[in-house]
Design goal:
Length: 488
């Protein structure tokens, strides 16, 4: 072939290279890592971000493309593999690597203590306490008066006993840990009697029988799923029985033909045999709210003589994740001395937040204003409808909003508490002009701040029971951005 023929042939190949989808053959044009690093935007990134992070991101993008093409899962053109085309992916990967993973969310779902969204929103006093504890040294385990080591439990012991009437108290990192520690300290190598209808599964697949097994105690099921009598406990009792565990079925209800012995009867039986009673209340509602009327009261359990009562700090209490154990000095003292107590101890930031929240409960008149969880649950329906109407007016004026109306809604307490209790609420229902409700919900979740609503009967509901007044402007801005992105 003549030189001119070769040139013509090469030109034809070059002209077609960027258009044809070459699959594995196109990999010959895949940019090298060094080529991508020399791109202006990536080179600038090296000045502001850790070099190792940027290089790793480039390598990840190049290798991901190579792997997908080699596996036959991606058809690409040579043009798509040029260095400049890989830059946007690298930029996104680097930002994802260096930015904190936890993102702020506006909760418009209507679920107040939403487990997947971090449960309770902390009061301002708790946030200030966390900032103080995290931003400076503290007397966490130090007596400023005596100049010697002290216990972190001292910071919440007295206020917790004062609020509940308990003689002793201990806090650990969550309620499951409190139950585990109570069982390990009082019933290891012995048997624990539990009503069959109370063998619940709590969040993330953890089950009461599993926790019992880890404590070193043996589970003995008594009664039936819907009916358990005192005689069932008496029949199951033997010389190895160390405890009775009552578990409040906070995330479901058994209705109809049901029966279970009162806590006072269980205490009488256990104490007559030198055993203890552990009462896992789950949410541990301390506030005087009508919504909590059917929840077992902490005071009732203590009055009945229960040895250990446990409940969560981040459910209906409205505080941080924590497990609170209160009760008799003998049982709580055994928990305090157990080796597991250190492994399960509460950290200083959660302790600071819990301390602040508990002290808010000392003023029953203001606690509903100061604790966001309680404020949301107690908000009057008329107030929510008024706020929903104002929000509806603002969203309706946005381009692409489509149909926007105020509707009655049903909110939930969340965190597995009050499972059958419907909390009347008001929501703004949005059906965007393009009809893509799921797309709108997705764009809101991916926005900044993220917004989590709920799709119901072909509309996106923004429930006002969990949207705080201070978040309204941001919520409107987020909806506007999500609607605009649909037409982009």
């Amino acid at each position: 072939m003549s030189a001119s023929g070769k040139q013509e042939s090469g030109a034809r190949k070059g002209a077609g290279a960027g258009k044809a989808t070459g699959g594995k053959a196109a990999l010959r044009g895949l940019a090298a890592v060094d080529e991508v690093l020399r791109q202006p935007q990536v080179a600038a990134l090296l000045e502001t971000r850790p070099r190792a992070v940027v290089v790793d991101a480039v390598r990840a993008v190049v290798e991901r493309l190579r792997t997908e093409v080699m596996a036959g899962g991606r058809e690409v053109s040579v043009d798509e593999l040029r260095a400049e085309m890989l830059v946007p992916w690298v930029l996104r990967l680097v930002e994802a690597a260096v930015e904190p993973s936890l993102r702020r969310v506006i909760n418009a779902s209507g679920v107040v203590a939403h487990t997947n969204l971090g449960r309770s929103v902390l009061p301002e006093a708790a946030l200030a306490a966390v900032a103080r504890a995290g931003g400076s040294y503290t007397d966490l385990e130090f007596s400023l008066t005596g100049g010697e080591r002290a216990s972190r439990q001292d910071h919440v012991h007295d206020v917790l006993c004062s609020l509940t009437g308990a003689t002793d108290a201990l806090v650990v990192n969550n309620n499951a840990a409190a139950v585990l520690l109570a069982l390990a300290a009082t019933a290891r190598d012995g048997e624990v009697l539990v009503s069959r209808g109370q063998l619940v599964e709590i969040g993330d697949g953890f089950r009461i029988p599993d926790i019992l097994a880890e404590s070193g105690a043996k589970l003995v099921e008594v009664g039936t799923t819907n009916r358990t009598y005192l005689r069932d406990f008496e029949k199951a009792w033997n010389e190895r029985t160390r405890a009775v565990l009552r578990v409040h079925t906070s995330n479901y209800r058994i209705v109809g033909f049901t029966a279970e012995p009162g806590i006072a009867k269980l205490v009488e039986l256990a104490h007559a045999h030198g055993a203890v009673v552990i009462d896992d209340l789950g949410s541990g509602a301390l506030a005087d709210l009508q919504l909590f009327a059917d929840e077992p009261a902490v005071g009732d359990s203590l009055a009945a003589g229960v040895d250990v009562v446990t409940f969560s700090g981040d459910k209906m209490l409205g505080g941080p994740q924590a497990g609170l154990a209160i009760g008799a000095e003998a049982a709580i003292g055994a928990m305090r001395r157990h080796p597991l107590a250190r492994a399960l101890r509460i950290d200083k930031l959660s302790l600071a937040a819990l301390d602040a929240v508990l002290r808010l409960y000392l003023d029953p008149r203001r606690v509903f204003e100061d604790v966001p969880t309680l404020a949301m649950l107690a908000a009057p329906l008329d107030e929510l409808r008024s706020r929903a109407a104002a929000l509806r007016e603002r969203i309706a004026t946005l381009a692409g909003a489509g149909a926007v109306e105020v509707v009655d809604s049903v909110a939930r307490a969340g965190a597995g508490a009050l499972p059958v209790t419907e909390v009347p609420s008001a929501a703004v229902a949005v059906t965007p002009a393009d009809g893509d409700v799921e797309g709108l919900a997705l764009r809101l979740r991916l926005g900044d701040p993220a917004v989590v609503g709920r799709v119901h009967e072909g509309r996106l509901l923004l429930d006002l029971r969990t949207v705080r007044t201070a978040e309204t402007d941001e919520l409107v801005g987020a909806v506007q951005a999500a609607l605009s992105a649909a037409g982009a």
